[in-house]
């Protein structure tokens, strides 16, 4: 029989034995329990996990659903362990606390839906509306740098015969700041580095949620493909157009297309529109 006292209430949990059979064990609501969520360990109380009885966690830790165990006897949940911290904190406080540079909103929404925590789902919807309002007006600053650099490499002319060669290459750097972190994520869905034979979104190289620095090179005449990898030289591509960016003019053109599709326009005072593609400092604005 269940007691009305939260600290003395006992609940059933399944504990797997070596033969994979399950037995019923009784826990107090205040008892600590360790969860293994996707390889990350969290320790909390059963009462916290049962904050919302209609959720999946509430069902699991009230004995309504079986639980799995890892090799150490911890309750195992095969879900994303990184964002579970935000779910657990919500269970503790009933308040959604996310860092300003949080980049996993989509994943957190999917996890909240999996655990069927309706108050958290509602809080995430409200958070997205709040972010959307804050994102309406935005600024994008781009600072461009270009330099020539000599690259040295070996060329195989015959089996066991190599010659030393060198060539000049164009090295580009773009420092980008936007008050809209969502725009930089949009940019990351279009611009990709070509590294080690693979395409990698530039968002993997974000300095923080509002700053992105891009470094890349144009194709180098005569440079073997393996030398790009060995010397860690990145090339920049626009996807899905499969267009390589070998000049600042092409870069500015492509970024401008992406920015204008997201509601940005060229700041009328900086730079002058007649010389836009030749400027090294560019500012775009968005008003909604």
From TrEMBL:
Transmembrane segments: none annotated. Residues 31-100 form the BTB domain. It holds the Pfam family KCTD11_21_C. InterPro entries: BTB/POZ_dom, KCTD11/21_C, SKP1/BTB/POZ_sf, T1-type_BTB. PROSITE patterns: BTB (PS50097). One of its GO terms (biological process) is ubiquitin-dependent protein catabolic process. Keywords: Growth regulation, Ubl conjugation pathway. One of its GO terms (molecular function) is cullin family protein binding. Pathway: Protein modification; protein ubiquitination. During embryonic development, interferes with neural crest formation. Inhibits AP2 transcriptional activity by interaction with its activation domain. Forms oligomers, predominantly homopentamers. Interacts with TFAP2A; this interaction inhibits TFAP2A transcriptional activation. This is BTB/POZ domain-containing protein KCTD15. It comes from Microcaecilia unicolor.
